[in-house]
């Protein structure tokens, strides 16, 4: 395993990789590095001289502990997963050879990480689901999920799969002068999100300078789109979606500014139709653990796909982190009293 410092080589691999995402692109990673302050380590893994996999890590140092993470924590960059992107040759291997190669990749990655980390965490895309090589290396594996709609199906079939109340809300919303426009006002987007998520505590929108989103929009104007939703001339919702290859993601936003009108279902449906018309075949709505949000996301009858986070801690990390958390809990208890 070695660092890849050639942007063209890196991006060419991401473009050809069946599971290479927009989050893997060189400029995206550089922007994440700039705004999080975590140092980027773009690694390539070679097998018999052939580049078979890449994985971008970010080094985070906290309280003297070195953490190699891929991706950074969600509140810092709002990147839901990153991890390994594989070559087309890897995906074409027979099952036995694929397992041997996958096990070799994971072991080579763990041996080759420099600086030697106290903690490693990898959030993997849903199409790489074999967790066994991580378990064989004593990683803890946390299974998560993402929602996916197959856009190759006829529109009527997709529509018929929606919850009855969802279809009713969409039809009711059609009676109003609703529209959406692509905009670039990241400041207003961020303020809208902060206002409507205040009760959720310090979210990504409270932590991150909106200039981060502005730079991403400028770097990927064909892939990342900011939309404002209108009822007449009044803004009733905000949304950022992204598309790459055949994959389309409902990424950020989707708050309803005007509570008395169910605009979220209507605009979600409009953007599904637009994604399908633009040639995307897979629509993803990441995040399945918030019960309130799941009640909304599940209305559209998406498939539930598993994905995973794998993490490994050394003894020093375990000891220091437990001690730190114990002190914090004690201090919090004193403050409460």
TrEMBL record:
Q: InterPro entries, alphabetically?
A: Acyl_CoA_acyltransferase, BioF2-like_GNAT_dom, PG_Glycine_Bridge_Synth
All copies of domain BioF2-like acetyltransferase, residue ranges: 164-282
| Domain of life where this protein originates | Archaea
SUPFAM superfamilies per the UniProt record, alphabetical: Acyl-CoA N-acyltransferases (Nat)
The protein's name: BioF2-like acetyltransferase domain-containing protein
Q: To which species is this protein native?
A: Methanocella arvoryzae (strain DSM 22066 / NBRC 105507 / MRE50)
Lineage at the top is: Archaea, Methanobacteriati, Methanobacteriota, Stenosarchaea group, Methanomicrobia
